[in-house]
Design brief:
With 276 residues, the chain is of the alpha/beta class. The radius of gyration is 18 Å and the shape is globular.
Length: 276
């Protein structure tokens, strides 16, 4: 089943993920994950690791088995730079919310040692975000980061900082549950005085982003900056009873997101004119 399709509704608000969607902080992220994985027994997380038989995909099972055998990620996974720490913890701990919360805390403690430069994922992202705001679309930033980490990175990016580009910023430390729970998205909408609807889009690069959007009852846009092919997208979004969540649309760049927003807004205006 293809998921390269159009959303059902035009955007009034677009919420955006941070790491690997807007900015590249892979080096610091993987260094911090490398610090956490050898400490799983010390952190009393070893017994919480998922059984590989319960993994969503064969690839997830392979990652899990490798971590159990080597206490680190496979070098190929690090070299590909395509999986977030949130998805790594989802693969390792599944639905165990307590284990994931403790893993994220250990990650945060390690991450602060590595925060340095922050680079845009693509050229021209500031201009694209400015275009969205010029269209009358409210924008929000969502990140599993702790607030002090995110604010530090937000001020560093592009050498100028992007604090002025968002109407609301919600971090993992602002809510009781991080993604894939919908808490951060719902908190952002509440701060904007909006109810969850298909007119709110959430753009993110991971399966946890898609799940969070679906659980919040808003439109999910998958950012395929990693260049996954359609076969791989169908694997990570299998549309099964156990794993039913699939994005409403897929974009390969922030410019494509802007074009998609313009297209849906233009369609909405044409419909409104026809009704009047």
């Amino acid at each position: 089943m293809s998921i390269l399709q159009l959303p059902e509704a035009h955007p009034e608000t677009i919420l955006l993920d941070w790491h690997a969607t807007l900015v590249d902080t892979h080096d610091a992220m993987y260094h911090a994950v490398d610090d956490v994985l050898p400490r799983l027994r010390e952190l009393e997380l070893w017994d919480n690791l998922l059984d590989p038989d319960d993994s969503k995909t064969i690839e997830d099972a392979k990652l899990l088995i490798y971590v159990k055998d080597h206490n680190r990620l496979h070098p190929k996974i690090v070299a590909q730079r395509k999986i977030s720490r949130t998805d790594i913890f989802e693969v390792l701990f599944g639905s165990d919310q307590d284990a994931k919360a403790r893993a994220h805390q250990a990650f945060d403690n390690a991450y602060k040692k590595y925060v340095e430069d922050v680079f845009p994922m693509e050229d021209g992202i500031r201009e694209q975000l400015e275009h969205l705001r010029a269209l009358g679309i409210k924008t929000g930033l969502i990140s599993n980061r702790k607030r002090d980490f995110l604010e530090h990175e937000l001020a560093l990016v592009d050498g100028t900082g992007w604090e002025d580009l968002f109407d609301v910023v919600v971090c993992g430390s602002d809510v009781g549950r991080r993604k894939p729970a919908p808490d951060m998205l719902l908190k952002a909408l509440e701060a904007l005085g909006q109810r969850p609807s298909r007119n709110c889009w959430y753009l993110g690069d991971s399966t946890t982003d898609v799940i969070a959007a679906k659980e919040a009852n808003i439109t999910s846009i998958f950012y395929n900056g990693a260049g996954w092919d359609q076969n791989w997208l169908d694997k990570i979004f299998p549309d099964t009873i156990k794993h039913p969540h699939r994005p409403d649309a897929v974009v390969g760049s922030i410019a494509e997101l802007t074009d998609l927003a313009r297209l849906l807004l233009a369609q909405h205006k044409r419909v409104e004119r026809a009704r009047n």
